[in-house]
Structures are given as structure tokens and as C-alpha cells.
Write a structure and sequence with these properties.
There is one protein chain. Helices cover about 45% and strands about 10% of the residues. By secondary structure, it is α+β, with helices and mostly antiparallel strands. The strands form two sheets. It has a six-stranded mixed β-sheet, sandwiched between helices. Helix 1 runs antiparallel to helix 2, helix 1 packs parallel to helix 3 and helix 12 packs antiparallel against helix 14. The N and C termini lie far apart (about 65 Å).
């Protein structure tokens, strides 16, 4: 009789760190964006998916690492990494991913899109007609919802929402009230679109877009009458958005979760993103305000929120630059012309959604409703619900739908 193999005590080489593994997954997503066989607009979509995934990664995973650092956790995980070491490795890896992501976007994807008549207009490229249209758009749509905040002893640094687009403005001079403020913060409300499409007649291409950040850069001086704008820098802060619920202490889960969901917009900062033209003085100021270090700083050669570009493939009607729409099929057992009940008497049928069609389920329910032999269970359930008010789940089913099912 063979003896069981001796157990080997696990060591560091047997484990892969969860956070570093997730970053390797982001590399695989980025590889899809770099693949020239992938349709062009889908490559742009993959670029955006990387940014969206990294947002969630920082909100939850990096936030957890920083929480361990804050609690002075000295031990190592099973992979042998201490929280401080893991934080440094994550920072290095993400910096490399972001550099590759923006290089791919700026050097490959955007030029290829422009060749297809899909152009993102830079401020330096605006024509007089485009400047006029953008100025009217700013005055009509953007200016009324902006509230600049000049920083002074009476107006401290504001609490900024998680992942919101903001601008730090360096000013010189005095405003109409004689006040001097060297720095102001302009928050872009989330009601404003981040990508604006211009009319084709003034762009010369089928699809011409401009970023909201470019519009605000061009017109930020309109917010500070009598003052000179010395610099305007877009930035974005990512905060801890992980929900913490102590099951033993919670008395009302709904109230607790409601409070946690509200607080997640203002959790501790875990990442600061700025454009690469941001001054060193402003970077140091922002890092201090958010309690972050240089390892938490990510400078981007472009807009700081690539996630918002994901709307572009949906707004551009170019089927040749997208994946063909997926049409779910049927399992072989259901392809023959026969009653569903006859097929199910012969064999079981497994449906794999969403890759296979949901229509057989609908047809099965419809066939059962049309058959006069089944017991009217819906009517019985409704009668029982009327008699027993505590059966909330059944009571919440709209009665009209139930009656309709009974009469089908």
C-alpha cells in the first residue's frame, strides 16, 4: 500500500501576491489594446477599462494596504511581503503600466483614430470657428455650474469628491473685492460631460471631440475677473472606498450601509493624479493637502481620467471599427423543431448565459402559461398573500402582473 506523500511546509515561493497578480491582469487587458488585430474603437475601450480597473484597485486594494501600514502591521503575508514593501512594489508596477498605457494611447491609438476621421482637438489646434463655438458652449453650459474657491484663512482647502475632476489655479493680483488669493480650486461638476463633440462643419472630420479639461483651461480666466492666471493644473484624487461593516456591532444594516456609502466619497486619499505640466510647487502643495507621498503621485501625459473616454466608441457609428454584435445561439438539443416539453422529457438541457439565448426560458414559461392543465399557482399565491400580510416577498409582486399570469 502506497504511503501518502509527505506534506511540505509552504514557503514564500509557493504564493503569488493577490495585489501584484491583479496588476498582471491589467497588463493582459492593456495587451488587448496593443493588439493590432483588435478593432480600433475596441482598443480604445480596452485603454479605458485599464483605467477603470485601476480606479477600483486603488479604492479597495491599495486602500487596504495603506490601512495595514497605518495600523503599523509589522508581519508579512504568506508571500513574504510587508505592507510597506508591497506598497512600494505596487507603486512601481502601476507607474510602469500607466506609462505604457498613455504611450499607446498618444502614439498609436489617437493617430489611428484621426486617420479614420475621429479626432480629439488640442487647444493649440483650434480654429477661430472652433474657438467661437467652444466659447459659447462654456458660457452657456459650463460657467453657470462652476464655483471657484479661492484659498485663504477663511476658505481652507475643500473636501473633494472621490475621483472628481478638479483644477488647481495659480493666481496673481486682486479680485473685484480687493482680495488676494494665490491659489484657487475649481471643481468640475459630474453633470458636465468630459468629452464634447463639435459640429462636423467646423471640425472638418466626421467626429471631432474636445475634452472638458481643455475648455476649462482655455476659459478659466473668465472665473477670476481682474486677476492673472499663472497656471492651471488638472488633478484627481482617489479615495478609500472600501465598505467596513462590523457584523457584531451593526443593529440596522440598512442604516449602516447608507452611512458607509455616503462616507466612501470622502475616505482617506490613496492616489493623486496630475497632468505632467503641473508645477513642482503645486504638486508639493496637493500632496500635503491629501496626506500623500511621492510614491502616491501619478503624472499623466494627457487627461487624468481616461475612464470617460469609454463613451466615445458608443457615440461613433462605425461598425467597421468595433466588434461584431454577439448573437447568443441555442444548444444543439433545442435546434430541432419540436415542443420544448417533448425535448425535456427526453433529456435535460443546460443553458449557459449570456453565451446562449434566454429565449427558450421565455418560451417554456409562455408554453406553461398557455397550457390549461397546470394548477393556477399564481392565483393561489395571491390569495395567500392577501390573507398573510407578513409575506412581504410575495406581496411586493405587482398584483396586476400576477393576475395577468393567471389569465394568460
Amino acid at each position: 500500500m502506497s504511503q501518502p506523500a509527505p506534506r511540505i511546509a509552504p514557503d514564500e515561493q509557493h504564493f503569488i501576491n493577490r495585489e501584484l497578480s491583479l496588476l498582471q491582469f491589467q497588463r493582459r487587458v492593456l495587451a488587448q489594446a496593443a493588439d493590432p488585430t483588435v478593432p480600433l474603437l475596441e482598443r480604445l475601450r480596452f485603454i479605458c477599462i485599464v483605467s477603470s480597473n485601476l480606479d477600483e484597485f486603488f479604492e479597495v486594494r491599495v486602500a487596504g494596504i495603506k490601512e495595514q501600514m497605518r495600523l503599523f502591521t509589522r508581519g508579512t503575508d504568506r508571500d513574504g511581503l510587508k505592507p510597506t514593501e508591497l506598497n512600494e512594489r505596487v507603486s512601481r508596477e502601476v507607474h510602469v503600466i500607466i506609462a505604457e498605457q498613455y504611450a499607446l494611447l498618444n502614439e498609436v491609438i489617437l493617430p489611428a483614430l484621426e486617420a479614420e476621421g475621429i479626432r480629439f482637438l488640442r487647444r493649440s489646434e483650434w480654429t477661430d470657428a472652433q474657438r467661437h463655438w467652444i466659447a459659447e458652449f462654456f458660457e452657456r453650459q459650463v460657467l453657470p455650474v462652476l464655483t471657484p474657491i479661492g484659498l485663504d484663512p477663511a476658505h481652507p482647502f475643500p473636501r473633494l469628491l472621490n475621483k472628481s475632476l478638479n483644477f488647481a489655479v495659480e493666481l496673481e493680483g486682486r479680485d473685484a473685492f480687493g482680495r488676494s488669493s494665490g491659489t484657487a480650486i475649481v471643481q468640475a461638476p459630474r453633470t458636465l460631460p468630459r468629452v464634447i463633440q463639435l459640429p462636423a462643419e467646423i471640425t472638418g472630420v466626421d467626429h471631432g471631440f474636445v475634452f472638458l479639461s481643455s475648455i476649462l483651461h482655455a476659459h478659466v480666466g473668465d472665473l477670476f475677473s481682474g486677476m492673472t492666471v499663472r497656471g492651471c493644473y488638472q488633478f484627481r484624487v482617489t479615495r478609500n472606498s472600501d465598505l467596513f461593516v462590523d457584523e457584531e456591532e451593526v443593529k440596522d444594516l440598512r442604516v449602516t450601509l447608507k452611512g458607509e456609502l455616503h462616507q466612501r466619497h470622502f475616505g482617506d486619499a490613496v492616489r493623486l493624479e496630475v497632468a505632467d505640466n503641473c508645477s513642482e510647487q503645486m504638486i508639493a502643495f496637493l500632496l500635503q493637502q491629501f496626506g500623500l507621498t511621492r510614491a502616491d503621485l501619478y503624472q499623466t501625459p494627457g487627461i487624468v481620467n481616461l475612464v470617460r473616454l469609454i463613451q466615445v466608441p458608443d457615440r461613433v457609428n462605425r461598425p467597421d471599427l468595433k466588434y461584431q454584435p454577439f448573437e447568443p445561439g441555442l444548444p444543439p438539443a433545442l435546434e430541432r423543431k419540436a415542443s420544448l416539453f417533448e425535448i425535456l422529457r427526453e433529456q435535460d438541457v443546460l443553458l449557459h448565459h449570456p453565451f446562449q439565448s434566454f429565449s427558450p426560458v421565455i418560451e417554456l414559461i409562455k408554453a406553461a402559461a398557455d397550457d390549461p392543465r397546470p394548477f393556477p399557482a399564481a392565483a393561489a399565491a395571491l390569495a395567500q398573500t392577501e390573507a398573510t400580510k407578513e409575506r412581504v416577498a410575495l406581496k411586493e409582486v405587482p398584483q396586476a402582473v400576477v393576475r395577468l399570469a393567471c389569465t394568460s
